[in-house]
């Protein structure tokens, strides 16, 4: 059975990494498919990025979708290999360490709503 998709507005966030690490959880609240998450740093980055499926069923059911250590990069794009379905109440948690002194990181999360 084919899934119906409705475009959703991009979700954006940013963090000044000289102040604190990035830890951002979406608040979508509906069924959706994760399409892409892009990270853009204000300079060369040496940090660890972690993308987690934050389960509505609690922390015991959370799963790390991707964790990557970036060295000497200014950007990174995560695209799931297959459709990553999220149920109503599941959210996306994106995190980035702040060890390297880069001023800011900008994040764009692209999703499609499941009907």
- Look at the helices and sheets and give the structural class: mainly beta
CATH homologous superfamily assignment: Galactose-binding domain-like
Order of helices and strands: EEEEEEEE
CATH class: Mainly Beta
CATH architecture: Sandwich
Tell me the span between the first and last alpha carbons.
13 Å
Largest sheet: 8 strands, antiparallel
Strand content: over 45%
**The CATH topology, please?**
Jelly Rolls
Number of distinct beta strands: 8
Rg computed from alpha carbons, rounded to a whole number of angstroms: 14 Å
Shape: globular
Quick summary of this structure?
By secondary structure, this protein is mainly beta. Helices cover 0% and strands 63% of the residues. The radius of gyration is 14 Å and the shape is globular.
In words, what does this structure look like?
- This protein is an all-beta fold and 115 residues long.
- The chain has a single domain, classed as Galactose-binding domain-like (Jelly Rolls), CATH 2.60.120.260.
- 0% of the residues lie in helices and 63% in strands.
- Strands 1, 2, 3, 4, 5, 6, 7 and 8 form an 8-stranded antiparallel sheet that branches.
- It starts with a strand and ends with a strand.
Features:
63% strand, eight-stranded antiparallel sheet, 115 residues
List strands and helices in order, with pairings.
Blueprint: E1 5-7, E2 11-16, E3 22-25, E4 32-54, E5 63-78, E6 84-86, E7 91-96, E8 104-114
Antiparallel strand pairs: 1-8, 2-8, 3-7, 4-5, 4-6, 4-7, 4-8
